[in-house]
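Sat 14:20. Reprocessing the chain from the morning session after the first attempt stalled halfway. Input below, unchanged.
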Amino acid sequence: MSDLIKTFEGHSTHVSCLTLLDDGTFLSGSHDYTIKLWDIKTGSLLKTFEGRSAWVRCLAVLDDGTFLSGSDDYTIKLWDIKTGSLLKTFEGHSGSVYSLSLLADGTFLSGSGDRTIKLWDIKTGSLMTFEGHSRPVTCLSLLDDGTFLSGSYDTTIKLWDIKTGSLLKTFEGHSAWVYCLAVLDDGTFLSGSDDYTIKLWDIKTGALLKTFEGHSTYVRCISLLEDGTFLSGSYDHTIKLWDIKTGSLLKTFEAHSGYIRCLSVLDDGTFLSLSCDSTIKLWSTPLSQAKAETKKRKMSLMDELVEFSYLPPSKGFKGGPLFQEAEREWKCRHK
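Finished this time. Tokens:
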């Protein structure tokens, strides 16, 4: 069975960023200056948002039906998903906006080519600037304790306190640009770099725990699955599936003809990939295949049980003695 499920076509050049919505749709940003809204199930292009004057680098969806986009025009824009209207423009960076991360209190973080990270209030604008990186800030990842991580062209990852703005820790170990981060639930995180590797770190101690090697060039995106594995996308045109615990490379996905720029895992274990070949692809994984098989098996068993439940009225309704007897028989057959 092919791992590739579907291809979404509509952008005219590199697709650089993606964010999922709760209604089975997603947004994609591109170097064609547009943002597009897609239906995952049908593959249909639902809407195109135009109004950017440069490459779209990052996206983030809010809970109120709006979303943010960051761009090479140095601004962040707020959009209404339903109407497609541009609601607000946030200005303050003096370089490309590479990364956005939403906080629960109506604020958000942005990482920029101007080497800073800014904290913004959706309603009022800029609140605070974090300075410490010596080169562009490419990626951000929030932790649950009021801190966040930032990765940079300066090869380092930094841990910050959101409330105070203090720099708490610097992680060093990569030998080239750090381009992506992913935080795990066990107090560790992953980082992908232009040194061709992915590294696993302990947040508390700062220790480098493991290095994953297998890509032949830059690693530009990472996405976690719930079964203890993760995906990495690279400029070698491949996506790789890794086991976090063992460090083993489990699978390589190949179908794109350009650099892989972004990955996003869906609830069913499938994932979307974005590429410089101007396409977006939907893939299955061992996790999604296992989930689909489990769902199919449950539906089949439920159908059998439902047959037992619809006994003729003369012999008792669901919940009656005959139904209970049928249920016991069903359980014996499926031990």
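The radius of gyration is 23 Å.
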